[in-house]
Amino acid sequence: MRILVIDTIHGGLDIARYLNVRGHFTDVVDVYRGNVGIDAATAAERSYDLAIAPVHLDPWHPLLQSLTVPVISHHDAVRWIIGKDRPAPFIEITGARGKTTTACALAHVMKGPGILHTSRGTYRFPEKDLIWKKSITPTSLVPAAEEALRIGGWCISEVSLGCTGAGEYGIITSSEDYLFAGGKKKALAEKVRSGQRLPRLLVAPGVDAPGAVQVESVAVTDGKVCRWECGGMTGTFGSPLLMLESYRIPLQLAAAAGCDLGGDPSRLASFQAIQGRMSQTSEGGIRIIDNSNSGTCALTTRSAVQYARNVTGKEEITLVTGKETGAVCEGFPREDILAVIGEIQPAMVIMVGSEYAGIGDDPGCRSIPFHYAGSLAEGISIARTLTSCGSIVLSVKCWR
After folding, report:
1. What is the pTM of this model?
2. What Rg value do the Cα atoms of the chain yield, rounded?
3. What is the CATH number of the domain that holds 229?
4. What is the signed CA dihedral for 384, 388, 393, 395, rounded to 10 degrees?
5. pLDDT tens-digit readout, 148-171
6. With 0-12 CB in 10 A as exposed, 13-18 as middle and 19+ as buried, what is 304?
């Protein structure tokens, strides 16, 4: 077939390469920067049998509007590329919040060899060896699935903006919603629609997905102990992480899915906080709570501050927050940061990111010392130098 692959930034070049190997002819168009492949005007004049476009492209984009052939998504293309020769079990995890934590927690309970693909990196289990780092665009599932198949193990993969349907088990980790594709689509609706193509779908509280399993029907917690029951098996595990909002639902999801997939949910009692997701360290009597990751937002920042104050018993917080420039498409809005600062009243703020210049001049911040940094690493360095009591909370939106 003659195929047009739209968007080279988010995995389109890899899709074209996979299809070329299978004997198809492909053209690629870089619709965002125009640096790779042919331009949109040339593509509109050529004849194709099929077009492949990312779900996040504005449906009213002129190139899409000019096409008269069927258009499938990058997610659909990945399902086609992987085909029936896939690892088992193969789990796809999507959602606005909690994907990485859920994926890592589920891998912790799984038995035998496997591949864990997350925004933190792709790891081979049980050794937990880092084998590469790739994005969580749909195309990145292909090498993860191929490696899992090679070692005869399971595959757990994060996927952005929905499931590909290549797997056999899907998890939606959050009911949080937002607009994408030029503000014309709702993210949660897309994740539910794509997740329902999988044979089994497990969803977080508040996700309306007919036919899916609600996590609370399998695993419930009182904040100290999680109780799970499925397939005639029951069990419990305790973990201090259940007290944290950012871990409670991912641990429930991991327990429910783990039980269903033949894992051992009791192993979650030994699951440790992940770097950038409420992990904690101490330096010279100062506790550092690390909440810097791609999903950092106002909600997780509040949780991190509350956690820091509970752990130390001290109110003083040095807050390192903001967004590393160009790191994550989804932003950390200035107004959200101002709301959090006004609510938690930190002793000091280190702002990361040029887009927040002058934020300390806002009326609600004038009594708080502000410093500015160009990166998370610089922000941490400044915080370590200036903090003499209490704790440091790292809450910067970035890829880690």
Report:
1. 0.87
2. 22
3. 3.40.1190.10
4. -50
5. 999 999 999 999 999 999 999 999
6. buried
